């Protein structure tokens, strides 16, 4: 399938999820993260969920990272296809941007080269770890600035597409793992 077809399909599938399903499945996903060998790392980057888009709720993930004394980094859109990354602290003020994504107003900026694990937002992905986001290219550009060793972990309510995504581009960055309510996929 093509990216635009998969975006449409998974937006519809997400729309069918109830708040209760999102909450329960998000907790299963966070528990599944414990199986990934990444807990010796220090800098963890996570997206902040957009509830109206019925994304995986990252609040439990943030709580888990705080409990393990990890440095949590969150993104802020700072230009076309450009993310800056800020340390999430107790006093960090978050405001929704033009796409209703919560992001820090300001704070301590963290260079992409320091980030060791990135929890990547996605709509769909395939059995090779190719992911499809919302199509703006923010995460592909950001991941190119990270170290090649940075672990890329997708969070999804759904299992991978068995058919490989047809229109993958050279600049599309593959996932290393994806965690779903049913289990862990390693690519």
Task: Write up this protein.
This protein is α/β, with parallel strands linked by helices and 187 residues long. It has one domain (3-186): Rossmann fold (3-Layer(aba) Sandwich). Helices cover 24% and strands 25% of the residues. It has four helices and eleven strands, in the order ααβαβββββββαβββ. The chain has helices at 3-15, 19-33, 59-67, 138-145, and strands spanning 43-46, 71-79, 82-87, 94-96, 102-104, 117-120, 124-125, 131-132, 151-155, 177-180, 183-186. A seven-stranded mixed β-sheet has the order 3-2-1-6-9-10-11, sandwiched between helices. The longest helix is centred in the first third of the chain and has 15 residues, at 19-33. It is globular and about 40 Å long. The model has no long low-confidence stretch (mean pLDDT 95). InterPro entries: FTHF_cligase, FTHF_cligase-like_sf, NagB/RpiA_transferase-like. Its EC number is 6.3.3.2. ATP binds at residues 3-7, 131-139. Its cofactor is Mg(2+). Keywords: ATP-binding, Ligase, Magnesium, Metal-binding, Nucleotide-binding.
- Helix/strand-derived class? alpha/beta
Helix content: 10-25%
The description of the largest β-sheet is:
7 strands, mixed
CATH class: Alpha Beta
What order do the SSEs take from the amino end to the carboxyl end, as H and E?
Answer: HHEHEEEEEEEHEEE
Task: Indicate the CATH architecture.
Answer: 3-Layer(aba) Sandwich
Remind me, CATH topology?
A: Rossmann fold
**Largest sheet strand order:** 3-2-1-6-9-10-11
Strand content: 15-25%
| CATH homologous superfamily classification | NagB/RpiA/CoA transferase-like
Organism: Flagellimonas allohymeniacidonis
Keywords: ATP-binding, Ligase, Magnesium, Metal-binding, Nucleotide-binding
EC number: 6.3.3.2
Family: Belongs to the 5-formyltetrahydrofolate cyclo-ligase family.
